[in-house]
Amino acid sequence: MPDPDESTTPSIHQHLARSASEPSRRRLLLGATAAAIAAGMTTTPSTAAASSATSNVAIPSPDTLPLTGGAEFPVGLFWPPHPYASTAERFAEIAEAGFDFVISGNYAGDGNIFQHQLALARDAGLQMLISDDIQIRNMARWFSISDNPADFLSITPAEAREFYTRARDAYGPYSSLAGFNFYDEPGPGWFGTLAKALAVSRELAPQLLPYINLFPSDDPAYYRDFVDIVKPSLVSFDRYPLLSEGREDANYFHNWAIVRDAALRGDVPAWVFIQTLAYNGHREPTAAELLWQVNISLAYGAKGIQYFTYWTPEAARGEGFGPALITVDGKRTSRYSAAKKINTTWLHQVGRELKPLVSESVVHANETPLPNGTVGFTPTDLVTGITGQAVVVGTFRSRDSTVKDRWLLVSNRSHSASTRATVVVDPAKVYGVDVFQPISKSYAGLRGTGVPVSLAPGAAALLRLKVR
Fold first, then answer.
1. Has residue 6 got a pLDDT over 60?
2. CATH says 358-467 is which class?
3. Nearest-CA neighbor of 238 among 296, 179, 338, 307?
4. Does residue 352 have a pLDDT over 80?
5. CATH 3.30.200.20 fits 12-354, yes or no
6. Full-model pTM
7. E strands in 185-261
């Protein structure tokens, strides 16, 4: 997520990885010299050293952690109300819109403010991931963690534990604390220190979620190395596909495909940020485009959705952000109502169905030419055809190998037009097809081997194939 609070520039790796149509906001602000400095600050121990330093610390299953665990599908936001607007009414407004957690930001960098917001979140039934706490920044961002006192700008593992202990003890008494945001968009040279930082977190507070959000990138090695070195509890990334003049980011699906592969490689959930506002060559999303981002992400296996942003960053920053869900002066936009409808009438319900399942495949059907990085539909032993207009189909299986059923999320490829498609199944293998009904949170059975699907712009349908 382009962090409105970020005071450093992106690394050269990030600059090369971003789409040419997506200029870095921070690079424009601070210039190439600062970018080179930031890119150079990647002196960390080797992968082998990082692995050795963290090998004795147990890694909790994501199923046991806040947000990644439990039955509920996590829906979060970044850039919440600023400190002066952090009131019980405002946090109730967040919960009313169907959000489950808040990632702190918007000038909330003081421990007393964090504690105030944690209390508000607790009372509203929300959880929080704390960003920008000085103790966590010292142990995971500003300094590397090293046993060698000669290393430049480094702290020892014992000092890292002391920093983390201070943060844990300051905020741990609040039941709304889900965990800490250790680093937003790290370069690959920082993975060794992040591995050590997460080991400290798991040693001292295994019940908290250690959170890191990654760059958008078209380089599979970036995400693969993150999974292999850091051993994260989830893979979160941001890429905003809705460009000006009605264009789409040509590599959006490619980025999703490699994130999906990395999350499966690490057997951890994949999370994504969706775009809620206009900025730097990106357009203001419609309600259908918000829904489209959500459903495409679900088809690609997302186990958590985050909105960038909730509150609108102020114009005085000079960054050109348009109105998000809430304006700078606190007024609801049409996107607040759209997000509320998506979250409360669809995302939570279908997300609860998909969260425990494993992404098995994702294909684009009836689309020519195929977008970069995508896979076209070919018949399988269960689904022999998908006819009609363009759809994106994610197939999911149960973790229980004795369950033969499959789930298909059929998402409209278009965010501007309705579409119709028919999913044809093999009756020798599939003895029934059920369609998920979000209102009743139940499935309704259909007859026949051809299942018609009619989708509004950006919409999706969840099918369950009952396999013999």
1. no
2. mainly beta
3. 307
4. yes
5. no
6. 0.90
7. 209-214, 235-238
